[in-house]
Amino acid sequence: MKRTHTVKRKRKRAGPSSPLLDPRNMDDDPVVQGILTAISQKRLKPGTKLGEDRLAKALGTTRIHIRQALAHLASRKIVMQFLNRGAFVYRPTWDEAREMFAARRVIEAATVSAAIDLLDKNGRAELKAHMAREAGHDRNDRWASLSLTADFHILIAKLAGNRVLLDMTRELMLRTSLAIATFERPGSPDCSPDAHPDIGSLVLARNKTAAIHAMAHHLEEIEERIKPDGDTRDDDDLTTIFKEIGVRSVNSANA
Ligand SMILES: [Zn+2]
């Protein structure tokens, strides 16, 4: 009993946000989620400085909380941290960018294949509903487009019924999004919008060979748009970015 008590006291000294130190909880943390959303919507660009004070102010939380979130994101290679310089949105090297696409080709061939194997009535309905959403959405809404096209790849991974593959797909989607943002002109979509109906129809038709081929071709097309000299820099105001994507301040979200 005495031992448990000591452990508890020690944890308490880690600060008011100590439950956040549990890495299993960090994925759901609102600051982590806010930064991930801003990155996946390309509002936070590779190389953007993630100042603790500015983030704490923009998200209405403490610097300790921000520091924990940034350390977690650094462990996932979404953020890079430098001694005495602080944290920045991860800027992959050209070699890393190529490796991410190579990994996606392998992983997404596997998710397409498993999704077709497991496709049932519910899966079909979910895929059809997503395809209808993609077909019907306003393509001028750049931020919504980016989320929707990423969701297609994540849905295929969900339908594959393997959580490890799903986690890997989520991670690779984010990291390739950073690679695209680094090596392509700003504001370009991550996916060519006409590829998904094709892949989706082939999955629904359970045509495995053609579906895997269509996905591989789609990923090749995206990769062809990035160029080693396409590295661009831009900076946006953190408060504006989080306001625009609807991430509420942490304190008001908890209230
Ligand atoms: Zn796509």
Can you describe this structure?
With 255 residues, this protein is mainly alpha-helical. It folds into two domains: 12-90 and 233-254, Orthogonal Bundle (Arc Repressor Mutant, subunit A); 94-224, GntR ligand-binding domain-like (Four Helix Bundle (Hemerythrin (Met), subunit A)). Helices cover 65% and strands 3% of the residues. It is built from 13 helices and two strands, in the order H-H-H-H-H-E-E-H-H-H-H-H-H-H-H. The chain has helices at residues 2-13, 23-26, 30-40, 52-59, 63-75, 94-118, 121-136, 142-159, 163-183, 195-204, 208-224, 238-244, 250-254, and strands at residues 79-82, 86-89. Helix 6 packs across helix 8 (142-159), helix 6 runs antiparallel to helix 11 (208-224) and helix 10 (195-204) runs antiparallel to helix 11 (208-224). The two termini are 34 Å apart. Residues 1-20 have low confidence and may be disordered. It binds zinc ion. Residues 149, 152-153, 191, 195-196, 218 line the site of zinc ion (ZN). Zinc ion binds next to helix 8 and helix 10.
Chart the SSEs and their pairings.
Elements: H1 2-13, H2 23-26, H3 30-40, H4 52-59, H5 63-75, E1 79-82, E2 86-89, H6 94-118, H7 121-136, H8 142-159, H9 163-183, H10 195-204, H11 208-224, H12 238-244, H13 250-254
Antiparallel strand pairs: 1-2
Helix pairs in contact: 4-5, 4-12, 6-8, 6-9, 6-11, 7-8, 7-10, 8-9, 10-11
The structure holds zinc ion.
Shape verdict: globular
Tally of structural domains: 2
What is the third-level CATH name, the topology of the largest domain? Four Helix Bundle (Hemerythrin (Met), subunit A)
Number of strands: 2
For the termini, the CA-CA separation is 34 Å
